Model the fold of this input.
Amino acid sequence: MSIEEMDRLAEEIDKMILDILLPARAEKKIGEKDFEKLKGILNDLKIRLSDAPVISRKLSGILFFMYHYRMKQSLLM
Done:
């Protein structure tokens, strides 16, 4: 997987995060369709990145943001 492909996926994930997180904060519910799409992309990434020697900075930043946000939310509950 090239760095350009990783950056493209990072941008796609970033757009989806807004669609998922904003309603989650305001209404305390997640759009099932958006969440399933995100899970599919993340599962694909897991497979494609397993043998990648490097990961793009943009993609790693997005993934860290998602992890950090989720950890923060779980501590607040």
